[in-house]
C-alpha cells in the first residue's frame, strides 16, 4: 500500500500547486516541495527493510484477464532510482522557484513537474510491466509538456515535438517488446520474469524481444543513433533540463537495461549490441560536445556521452561493470545536475550562455563559479572527485573487454572518449569562469539568490564526499543497488581512490593530459571536425518527418474528397462484401420453423408499403410528398407491431411518428422544398445497385433468422415480471426494472441530444444564420394565421389528451403504456397548442421550463436508483405494494413508477425542447409580427417597416 | 407471413440506403428514418413472429418474446432523438451556408497552414 502511495502522491498532489499559486510563489513552491517530501519520507521509511535485503511488494489486480495489475515492488535498484528522482525533485523545485520569472505560470510548471515525477517513480517501482509501460508513456507525455513549457517559442515546440516523436516511437517498440517478454515468460510481473531468465533466454523470440526493448531504452536514453533529440530538448527551461535530461528521464532507459540485466545480460546478443552502442554514443557525444558553444548544448551532448558510458558498462555484462554502471549513475546525476543548474544561473545572471561571449566569471560570480569548477573537474575525471572514481572503474572494465576478437578496441576507444570528455570539461570550465573578466555582458553578472546556488551546493557535497571517501559514503548504496541489478552475489571489489599502478591509472592519466592538450589545440580540432563532418541527424529527422507528413496528406486527400455519399457508399459496400463472405461460409439449408399463414390485411399492408417504396424512389425530390410517404411507412410499421403481438411498440411507434413528422414539416418550412437532380443515369444505377444489394441482404438475413427456432433468454423475464417486478406488462417491467440501467442511460442520451439541439438553435438568431432567415421570408402566407376552429379544437383536446396520458402512464406497468408513450402523448398535446396558436402564445403560457423537465426527469430516475442503493439493494432495485384507493379499488404500486415518471418527464422535455426551438427560429422567418391568439387575424397586409423585431437586429 | 415481413425489411432498407446515398441533407434524413424503421423491425423480428400472444401476463400458455420488444421500444425513442438532432444540424447548416448539401466543402478539407514555419 505504501509503495502505491509513493507513486500516487505526486499524481494526487499535482493539483496542489495549481491551487496554491493563488497564495503566492513562495507558498506554491513550499506546497509543491511538501508533496515531494512526503513521498520521499514515505519511501525512506522503508530504507531499513530494503537495506536488510528485503523485497517489498504490493499489488491489486486491475485487468486480470490481460495480465495487468496495479502492483509495485521495491528492491535496491528501485529504491536507488526513486530516491534519486524524489530527492533531485526537491532541489529542482527550489531552483525553479527562483529561476522562472514572475511572468511564467509557476503553478502550471509544478503541476507538470509533479506529474512527471509520479510517472518516473511509477516506472522504477512498477512490478507489472504493463503498468510500467503506462508510466513510461506518461513520462513521454509529461516531458513533452515540460520541454514545451515556453510554448510561445517555436524552438520549444519543435524540441518538445521531436522528443515526443522519438521517445514515443521508442515507447511503441517497447510496448511490443514487453508484450513479447510477458508472452515468453508467461507472466507480466517483473519480479517473476526476473526468476525465469532461463526460459526467456532459450526462447526463439529472444532476439526480436531484446531488439524491441532496446529500441525503447535507447530512444529514451538518447543512445546513438537516437541521440539527436536530447540537445533540441534543451529549449526547455533549465530546471527541466537539469531534472529530466541529466538525472531522471534519460536514465529511464538505463534503469530498464539495469532492471532486465539478469534476464538478458548473459546472452550474446546483449553484449554484441548494447556494449558497442554505448561505446559509440560515448565517443560521438563527447566529440560533438567539444564543439558546442551553447553551455546547455555542450552539457546535453556531454550527457549523451555519459549515458553511453553507462550503457556500455551494462552491455559489458560482467557484475563488476554493473557495479561501475550503478556508481556512475549516482556520480553523474550529482555533478551533471549541478552543472546544468550552474549553466542556468550563468544564463540567468549574465544574459547569455554562449561560451564565446563568456569568460572571467570567477570574480563576478564567485559562488557559482567555484561550485561549477568543482563539478566540471569531476566531469573531467580529476582525482579526489567522484567522477574520477567511476570513470577509472569504467576504464578498468574496458581493459577486460574483448570485442570481435580485438582486445585493444574497447580500451583505446574508451580512453579516447575519456580524453575528449576531459577536453570539453576544460573548455566548459576554463572558457566560462577563468581568464580575464569581461565587461561586455548583456547584464551585469553577479551571484544569483541563495535559492539558486543552494541546490548546486547541496549536490557538490556528495561530489567531494564520495570522491574522498567512496567506500564509506557510497559503498552501501552501490552495493545494495548493484546486488539488485545483478541478482546474485557480487565478486570482491573495493571503491577506492588508489588501486595501485593499474592500466586504468595510465589511461586516466592519458585522458587528462591528452584532454588538456586537445583543449589547448581547440582551433586545430575544430578544423579537423569540419573535415570529418558527418550527416546532420536533425536534417535527416526533419526530412523523414516532412516525408511522412506529405505521405499522410496524399493519402487523406486522395481518399477523403469530402463527398458524404462516397463515404457511405464505401462503408456499405464493405458491409455487403463482408456479409456475402459470411454467407458463403455458412450452411445454406432452409429453416425448419413453422411459418404463420399469410392473412389478407397483412397482404394489403404489404402491397401499400411496396407502392410507397416505389413512389419514394421516383418522387423523393418533391420533399413534402417524400415526407408524407415516409409517415405512411411509419403507419404500416405500427400495424405490423400490432399484428405481431407488440402493442407497446405500436403505441410508441405511432406517437413517435406524429412527433417526427411535425418536426420534419417544421424544418422543411425553412429548407428548400425540392431536391435538385444529382447525377446521371449511371450514378443512379450505381446507387440503386448498392441499395438493392444492401436491402436484399438485410431482408434475406431477417428471413433466415425468422425461419429458424432459437433459445430465448426471456423466460426469466416472463416468469419473474409479476412476482419480482410487480407488473404484468413484461415489456414495461423490463424497461423500468430488469433493464432499468439501460433505460436510465437512454434518457440521458435523449437529454444530451435535446441540449445539443438547444445549443444549435439558440444561437441561430444571430450572425449568418439570422441573415439567411431574413432572406427566406415566405412569399405567400395563409390569410388565416391561426384558424379559429383549430385553435378551439386543440384547446378543448388538451385536458382530454392529458387525461389519456395519465391513464396510459398509470396502467403502463400492467397493460400497454408507460412513461415513454405517455410522455409522447403529452408532448403531442402541447405541440398542438404551438401549431394552432403560435409559438409566442404557447411559449408565454408554458409554466414549466422544458430543459428543467429534462434535468428533473433524469434526476428523479437517478434518485430512484440511488434510493435503492441507500436501502442496501443494488442500483435501481424496485419493490411494490398494494394500496386501496377509493373508487378505483385495490391497485398495485411499484417503486419503479417513480423511475417511469423520470422517463416520462425526460421524454416530454426532449420533444418540447426540439420542437419549440425550431418554432422559435421559424418565427423569425415570418413576414409579419406573429399575431397572437385566434382572434388576432391580421387585417393589414401592408409592409410595416420596423414593426418586426427581427429587422431591427443587425 | 415471415416472407412478407422479411421483404418489407428489405424494401425499407433498400429505399433508405438509396436516399442516404444523396448529397442533400433532406433525402439523407428521410433515408435515415426509413433505415431506422427497417432496423427496428429487423431487431423485433429476431424475437420471431407470433400472433395474438402479447407479453402481458394473463395466464396464457405462451407469450411472445418481450426482450426484443423492450429493446426496440427504446430504439424507437432513441431514433427520434437522433432524427431530431440531425434535422436541426441540417437546418443550422443550411442557415449558415445557404446550401443544404451534406458534403464537406473542399476548402474545409485543406490542411491548416502550419504556424511559424
Secondary structure category of chain A: mainly alpha
What's the mean pLDDT score of chain B?
85
Outline the biggest β-sheet of chain B.
Answer: none
Q: Order of strands in the sheet with the most strands of chain A?
A: 1-2
Oligomer: heterodimer
In whole angstroms, the N-to-C terminal distance of chain A is 64 Å
**E-strand count of chain B:** 0
Q: What percentage of amino acids of chain B are in beta strands?
A: under 5%
Q: Distance between termini of chain B?
A: 68 Å
Low-pLDDT stretches of chain A are: 935-954
Looking at the overall shape, the CATH architecture of chain B is: Orthogonal Bundle
> What is the number of domains of chain B?
1
Q: Give the CATH class of chain B.
A: Mainly Alpha
What are the low-pLDDT stretches of chain B, counting only 5+ consecutive residues below 50? 109-117
State the CATH topology of chain B.
Answer: Helix Hairpins
Relative helix content of chain A = over 70%
**Overall pLDDT of chain A, averaged?**
87
What general form of chain A does the structure show?
elongated
Number of helices of chain B: 4
In brief:
By secondary structure, chain A is mostly helical. Chain A is 71% helix and 3% strand. Chain A contains 43 helices and 4 strands.
Protein described:
The complex is a heterodimer of chains A (954) and B (117). Chain A is mainly alpha-helical and 954 residues long. Among the domains of chain A are: 268-526, no CATH class; 535-587, no CATH class; 608-675, no CATH class; 728-936, no CATH class. In chain A, 71% of the residues lie in helices and 3% in strands. Chain A contains 43 helices and 4 strands. Chain B is an all-alpha fold and 117 residues long. Chain B has one domain: Helix Hairpins. Chain B has helices at 2-20, 25-45, 66-97, 106-109. Residues 109-117 of chain B have low confidence and may be disordered.
Give the SSE map:
The complex is a heterodimer of chains A (954) and B (117).
Chain A: H1 2-13, H2 15-20, H3 25-44, H4 47-51, E1 56-63, E2 68-74, H5 76-99, H6 106-125, H7 129-147, H8 154-185, H9 190-193, H10 197-201, H11 206-220, H12 229-232, H13 238-247, H14 249-259, H15 261-264, H16 268-290, H17 295-316, H18 319-350, H19 361-364, H20 366-380, H21 386-399, H22 409-433, H23 450-468, H24 470-473, H25 475-486, H26 503-520, H27 522-531, H28 537-559, H29 564-584, H30 600-619, H31 623-643, H32 647-670, H33 681-706, H34 715-725, H35 730-738, H36 740-762, H37 767-775, H38 788-811, H39 819-837, H40 839-845, H41 850-870, E3 880-885, E4 889-894, H42 896-924, H43 949-952
Antiparallel strand pairs in A: 1-2, 3-4
Helix pairs in contact in A: 1-3, 1-6, 3-5, 3-6, 5-6, 5-13, 5-18, 5-23, 5-25, 6-7, 7-8, 8-11, 11-14, 13-18, 14-17, 16-17, 16-22, 17-18, 17-22, 18-20, 18-21, 18-23, 18-25, 20-22, 20-23, 21-22, 21-23, 21-26, 22-26, 29-33, 30-31, 31-32, 32-39, 32-42, 34-35, 35-36, 36-41, 36-42, 38-39, 39-40, ...
Chain B: H1 2-20, H2 25-45, H3 66-97, H4 106-109
Helix pairs in contact in B: 1-2, 2-3
